[in-house]
């Protein structure tokens, strides 16, 4: 029988406040124009577009005390945290349309708090070319889109680590990172010290994507909320050029489809981030259209009916 999915709420977050390039603020509209809502409706999913979260403009200034645009990043993430919590309370599956990846601090903080309230375990799948486990001491840029996993794990400024009132929001043991292929030298040590579970591209090359996903998804059960944080630069830039931080050697189209289909097979996905889509760098909305195609697979699209 076809799988049923909970009702979905699209939450646009039009900002590039944590990024090193302008343009991700247009990501939500690019996904809408590419037909994300219509594609999910066609799959029988109940979809409501809640519109866009509002926040401060990007001042585009240099870092202060190691963090770029910290006050503005906090404001956007707090607004998203509240919007995400509101949709979860209604029993809906929130899909955050970013925007840059710093926004995962707000979405995942809300989701982690919801899981604690519901007595559920949390599993975060971080699909990305980057580990995003930087700190202000490690990265000279100060761009906070390189820090969300560290902040969520309690490493960073109090304004972000305690966004939801508790720190850490999550632990490294709740995270599985897939597709990683760009990690700063000192960030590697932080990842090792905190035992972050990383399946980099070498691992994927050696064992294959199927085995990688089986391992990353192992242990999910009815008491697990699965959150997928999908950075579009997870994909190889040959198929997804519309991102600000392209890294060669990522998953190809078929590997990416397998990732999404195996996530769908679990039936456990309860929330989703889509981030770092930058239409300024795209070609005729190609990357947005591909992203919509992959999200359809997260919601059960496959070549054949499978048990």
Describe this structure in words.
This protein is of the alpha/beta class. It has one domain (8-298): Ureohydrolase domain (Arginase, Chain A). It is 36% helix and 16% strand. It has an 8-stranded parallel beta sheet with strand order 2-1-3-8-7-4-5-6, with helices on both faces. Strand 5 (175-180), helix 7 and strand 6 form a beta-alpha-beta unit. The termini are close together. The mean pLDDT is 96.
How is the secondary structure organized here?
Elements: E1 8-13, H1 27-33, H2 36-42, E2 47-52, H3 70-89, E3 93-98, H4 104-118, E4 121-127, H5 148-152, H6 158-161, E5 175-180, H7 185-193, E6 197-200, H8 201-207, H9 209-217, E7 224-231, H10 253-266, E8 269-275, H11 286-298
Parallel strand pairs: 1-2, 1-3, 3-8, 4-5, 4-7, 5-6, 7-8
Helix pairs in contact: 1-11, 3-4, 8-9, 9-10, 10-11
GO molecular function: arginase activity; manganese ion binding
Family: Belongs to the arginase family.
EC number: 3.5.3.1
Structural class: alpha/beta
Rg, Cα atoms, Å: 17 Å
Total domains: 1
CATH topology: Arginase, Chain A
What ranges have pLDDT less than 50 throughout 5 or more consecutive residues?
Answer: none
Outline: globular
What is the class in the CATH system? Alpha Beta
Q: Give me the strand/helix succession.
A: EHHEHEHEHHEHEHHEHEH
* Reported CATH architecture: 3-Layer(aba) Sandwich
User: CATH-wise, what's the superfamily?
Assistant: Ureohydrolase domain
Question: How many alpha or pi helices?
Answer: 11
Order of the strands making up the biggest sheet? 2-1-3-8-7-4-5-6
Q: What is the helix content?
A: 25-40%
Largest sheet: 8 strands, parallel
Number of E strands? 8
GO molecular function: arginase activity; manganese ion binding
Keywords: Arginine metabolism, Hydrolase, Manganese, Metal-binding
Pfam families: Arginase
Binding site for Mn(2+): 101, 128, 130, 132, 231, 233
């Amino acid at each position: 029988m076809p799988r049923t999915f909970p009702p979905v709420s699209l939450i646009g977050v039009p900002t590039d406040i944590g990024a090193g390039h302008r343009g991700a603020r247009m990501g939500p509209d690019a996904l809408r124009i590419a037909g994300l809502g219509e594609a999910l409706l066609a799959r029988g999913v109940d979809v409501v577009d809640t519109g866009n979260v509002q926040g401060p403009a990007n001042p585009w200034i240099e870092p202060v005390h190691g963090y770029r645009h910290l006050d503005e990043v906090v404001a956007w993430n707090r607004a998203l945290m509240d919007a995400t919590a509101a949709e979860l309370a209604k029993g809906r599956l929130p899909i955050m349309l970013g925007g840059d990846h710093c926004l995962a601090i707000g979405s995942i903080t809300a989701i982690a708090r919801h899981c604690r309230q519901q007595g559920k375990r949390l599993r975060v799948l971080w699909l990305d070319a980057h580990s995003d486990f930087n700190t202000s001491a490690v990265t000279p840029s100060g761009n906070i889109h390189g820090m969300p996993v560290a902040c969520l794990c309690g490493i960073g400024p109090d304004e972000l680590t305690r966004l939801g009132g508790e720190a850490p929001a999550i632990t490294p043991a709740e995270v599985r990172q897939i597709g990683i292929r760009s990690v700063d030298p000192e960030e590697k040590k932080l990842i090792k010290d905190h035992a972050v579970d990383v399946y980099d591209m070498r691992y994927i090359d050696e064992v294959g994507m199927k085995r990688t996903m089986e391992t990353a998804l192992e242990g999910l059960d009815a008491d697990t909320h699965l959150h997928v944080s999908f950075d579009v630069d997870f994909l190889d830039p040959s198929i997804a050029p519309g991102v600000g931080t392209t890294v060669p050697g990522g998953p190809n189209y078929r590997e990416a489809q397998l990732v999404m289909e195996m996530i769908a097979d679990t039936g456990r996905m309860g929330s989703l981030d889509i981030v770092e889509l930058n239409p300024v760098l795209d070609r005729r909305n190609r990357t947005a259209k591909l992203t919509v195609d992959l999200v359809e697979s997260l919601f059960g699209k496959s070549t054949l009916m499978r048990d």
